[in-house]
Design a protein that fits this description.
The complex is a heterohexamer, with three copies of chain A (261 residues) and three copies of chain B (243 residues). With 261 residues, chain A is of the alpha+beta class. Chain A contains five helices and twelve strands. Chain B is built from four helices and nine strands; from the N terminus they run E-E-E-E-H-E-H-E-E-H-E-E-H. The chains are: A alpha+beta (261), B alpha+beta (243).
């Protein structure tokens, strides 16, 4: 049974939208404060913590030695997974990964993978025998809204600051993982009838459609995803795509500022 | 999307594709409704060599009660690939890819079904892929909206699933298997032919904004063509205009 | 809680049985119309669609290269599975395979396996190194009653029209799979106190015992299974076994008519 | 059933079997009831080297409520092999074989238990195989009907589990492990000794109709013998005739 | 919803405890009768049945050939698991292993493993290639209270009477498994406010804390576990540790009396 | 505990440990509360290189109803290691070790939380290990009791998690990773600093009774030190004494 509160909240958001306002006082295309820390966690070869409004997310990178697939003997592999564990919000329950958690992991994964920022051939150690498997795990610790963007940011920041632990595996010297670009995600939700950037928790309660856009360094699209119930027009999409270009560029600079530390 | 597109020639010198299609030409589409006697509504969609079959059950009482919605029906959608539908057999069971597609397909259909007509109830939509040749999620969405129509479930509009993509730096409509394997981008969409809205959208690979715009233009054009085939299929069964 | 309708239906079936009639007008040992199509599905190396009354079933055959078991270095393997997915009827729910679905798959598997129609040694490519694994998957799409017989028929028809994809695996030329016989299943249910052949959906609602008999080319028994609650006498079994002989022979001819197309 | 029977000699020149039994002779059977203090009823069956132990709990309230039947009890039967019961250790957990045997065993017992006496309730029957030497499903059925009797659950008749089979083109009663591994057919049955009815039947391998008839004749003969041992076991505990 | 009976029972146990009595008439540190049989089960390379009051437990030992871990090329492995299956009590339900069942298996496993009674190097057949994996499975058949001690006893007795089936695996002659000591568990529960040894089923219904102590031949501690809700003082622990020393020594003699049969 | 302690030197000639600590010296401990905005209460504990974070939700209605207790709240505790928390990545999901630790941690906390204040309700305690360097279950217990305090859940006492162990036949406080890998025993305890009681106790390896007594003495000493840090962390947020 649906609780009644979301409906009241929905009306309030609607009322504010009519005045071009948001429930937390932000402008329609304004982002909450974002804090990024890297290299915090012992045992992770790369790690990042993103504090994005009330949202807190960690990402960690681990490496393993693998035998390459026979049809791609020089290619390593990349895997990105996200867990929406019950620690993150009262609404998440224990159990097998929910559709929400699978979608989150796959959308973040596609944004990074499809940007081509990791050259799979660069993960080869001995062709046909040994390649690196790179695994990024994202742990959502506090869901205060817009976890997609926070997870995407944590993942690429952990990756761009990761050290390949070659010495521990006895295959050469430790070195920085080569990551050639910085794909960034920007998410939009319909709240009060119009799209807004970076929805907070209250704005997500409406449950209307979300659009996730991942842009690479050259402002090419690498991943799109429409989630939740609702329809949108090509014109609406064109408008948010413009916002995404600006926002992604700013966050790309934030990631760059943490590298080489 | 693979990155190895440089090695594989997918366009011929005359600009047509390996199977002879023009860049903005889709594969042949066949549609039938009412194919599964045990279901309330059903549909069969063949697009190229893809075969998607969908059964709809309900509206029925939603249980357990905690999934009920006071003010509307819930859609319970499953997208499943038969073990023999792919080149290499896939193990039965619901994998992560199938769960994601089921979720976004459900959300696409929720955007058009008049769920508010059936409070506290559930409608089950079962999409089975019997043969897969790239583009199964789109064929599944088309099949699902046809099966819902066949079951007499009221909808604001039908949904047409269709994808465009990019091969050899060229935007093309409706990727086939080789194009999907060696292409550079895929842009599947769910289009409402009457309202012109999108209710489903995914994309992966690499597209400039201009390429995106062209790919989406192809999608809208194809959606109109497929819509005619859908209407004809319903007319074939119900002897008239669109449901 | 049991719905009351099945009980009313049960009484009606009982009443008709007293007059030697069935609810859909058939004779006691009469079969519904059966349609068989083969080779429909791209990607399946053998496939069949059976339309048996309101029941619709697909079967598909796939091959894989395997390492043989050390104690049987020249033997390939055969596996037959059935899925009773929620597409097939409002009564089937999603989730792990139900006991019904496991029983169905295993009974069909035993009928084919125990008939010896596939010589496991004929699946050997390199002794001790490479053998074929043959996998038949049955997909029930519409359950209108007597899915066991429909599944058994689809499985053997898919098998008998399968092409071994040796070229794709680079181990020789494609060739027809050698299948030396045509095991056929015949199923009987107690309806209205007596056994009938080929129960329709309404007759199965009574929930009384079923007997599944698989007969090979020489009318030998290869598989038996009694399912559901109920008891039967040896005399009753002898009677249905006679019916099975006739019916299986007819269906064996139907399979033969689709081969070599 | 394996196909390699040509290689393995299972009958001696005098027509007897490797362990000295005649073709229509079963392995020794021992039965005890009341072996598990925590259970309402329990039984232990040793047949050859097989050991099957069964506990019965209930009748108790059936929950969750959706499994309840208005007019009768439901039987919840599990057949499980202990990890150490077989030559090669088997992983704990319920595999497909165990699920099928549990289903058909439940259906056999439902045919004799007076379920209508306990509407809305549930009876749990837990069969554990501690040592397996071919024929465990039959030993389990025998143990289950004894444990039900020990628990005082009313039944129309007991059920005896027994199998015949075929080795070297000869029908024999009660296959042991080697005979099962290298034999040509197996015909396990669940027989009601008083009514002469069958409530359980499976078969795999290759049997002509005549062979089937002989094998079933052996099964009925053995069922009568085992029935006497069952009655004696109940008498040993309850000091009298059959429960 | 908790049934009320345990509370009444709890009060009765409390009343008796005030008079230094137990509900089944035993003294505070007194054990119920324990019967141990070994070598009962065909197919198990070692087996034991423990009848401990109303508790009945079987343990069976199986061996397998394994490839050793690369970093320990001469070491075999030992695994001990317990299953609390629904056969054992009306309170156990089918399903994946419960936390209770996992705890039971792990506590028994630690007691045996940490005692060092099995020299992992003695399980080596060919260094780096073949070692024995020893698996002890414990099957609780009737839970009449204190299954931990019964399981621990069955496990060590099965192990100490196990034969390594080298002939069957074609790696030498069958021989007795070398087990150098006899770790024994003693368990205590708070009942009526004080700790008692060897709780019966009624005493366990109180649900107060349990302490499990495993002692080796030299009366060293090899495993400790506090389970269930409740607190205890170091002084209480010192008292029960004394009792454990006496009881474990007696049971160690019982195991010895069954060996070499 | 590994047996290979003979090979690895863990104590220096001056009797101190490889990282310079004295035998009865614990690793540095840092604690913060209120670190997760979405939770009712939360805490972050760093002990050596371990990082444990805990969120508390509730009291809330316990459902499904069958888990409710008429007279008290139930504690639903999960201990989980993040995939990147260990040297080798661990697969997400709840393994046997995590289930056991969750169980005994829940039982430790049940011993101090005033559950009787919240009949029929549930309190969720989620412990996440983000970095593991031996001793995570103890850090998790400390974090959990801090997060419960931060959530305002009334408790009889806090619980401090701390372990001692044995390396090279010497009892030492608070094993680090190398000491845990090559040591001879580990004795983790959950200590109530005010009442002096134990609510959590495990041990594995080899300890004489005298060694046990010394190890436990170290644990109590360290618990008092950690307790001061806990009180200071609460004071830092709530500006006063202990919650």
């Amino acid at each position: 049974m649906v609780a009644p509160v979301p409906n009241l909240l929905r009306q309030e958001i609607q009322r504010l939208a009519a005045q071009d306002k948001r429930i937390d006082g932000r402008g329609r295309w304004e982002r909450r404060s974002v804090d990024l820390e890297v290299g915090l966690l012992y045992n992770a070869e790369g790690s990042a913590k993103v504090t994005w409004g009330d949202t807190v997310v960690y990402a960690g990178v681990k490496f393993e030695l693998r035998t390459p697939w026979p049809d791609r003997p020089t290619q390593g592999s990349l895997m990105c997974g996200a867990e929406l564990r019950p620690v993150a919000h009262v609404k998440y329950e224990p159990g097998p990964p929910s559709p929400e958690s699978i979608e989150l992991g796959r959308v973040v994964d596609r944004g990074i993978r499809e940007s081509g920022c990791i050259d799979m051939d660069s993960l080869c150690i001995v062709p046909g025998e040994k390649v690196w498997g790179v695994m990024i795990d994202i742990h959502v610790m506090s869901d205060g809204g817009n976890i997609f963007d926070a997870c995407g940011l944590a993942a690429i920041a952990a990756l761009r600051t990761a050290i390949v632990p070659a010495e521990r595996f006895d295959v050469g010297e430790d070195h920085v993982l080569a990551v050639s670009s910085t794909p960034i995600m920007a998410s939009f939700t319909r709240a009060g009838g119009r799209f807004v950037y970076d929805p907070c928790e209250d704005e997500e309660l409406g449950g209307d459609e979300r659009i996730h856009i991942t842009l690479g360094d050259k402002e090419h699209l690498h991943s799109l995803q429409k989630g939740l119930k609702g329809a949108f027009t090509p014109a609406e999409f064109a408008e948010i795509l413009e916002v995404a270009r600006t926002q992604c560029a700013e966050l790309r600079d934030l990631v760059a500022s943490k590298e080489g530390n | 999307m693979m990155g190895g597109y440089g090695d594989v020639q997918l366009l011929k010198e005359d600009g047509t594709r390996l199977d002879g299609r023009a860049v903005d030409e889709m594969r042949p589409v066949e549609i039938k409704v009412g194919v599964l006697p045990a279901a309330q509504g059903s549909a069969w969609v063949k697009q190229g060599l893809n075969v998607a079959v969908c059964a709809v059950y309900g509206p029925m009482e939603a249980h357990p009660r905690k999934i009920q919605r006071q003010d509307r029906a819930v859609l319970d959608v499953r997208y499943n690939m038969a073990p023999f539908s792919t080149g290499e057999r896939i193990r039965p069971g619901f994998n992560r890819r199938a769960r994601e597609i089921s979720k976004v397909t459900a959300e696409a259909l929720e955007s058009v079904v008049l769920l508010e007509r059936y409070p506290r109830s559930k409608i089950r939509v079962e999409i089975e892929i019997l043969a897969a040749e790239a583009g199964t999620r789109c064929a599944g969405i088309t099949a699902a909206s046809m099966a819902l129509a066949d079951a007499g479930i009221p909808m604001r509009d039908l949904v047409v699933g269709i994808a465009s993509g990019k091969i050899q730096d060229t935007v093309v409509l409706d990727l086939d298997k080789a194009e999907d394997n060696y292409g550079q981008a895929d842009l599947p969409a769910g289009i409402c032919p009457n309202t012109g809205e999108l209710v489903f959208l995914q994309m992966d690979g690499d597209l400039s904004i201009e390429e995106y715009n062209l790919a989406m233009e192809y999608n809208f054009k194809a959606a109109a063509e497929i819509h005619e085939i859908m209407v004809a299929a319903l007319a074939a069964k119900y002897g008239g205009g669109e449901a």
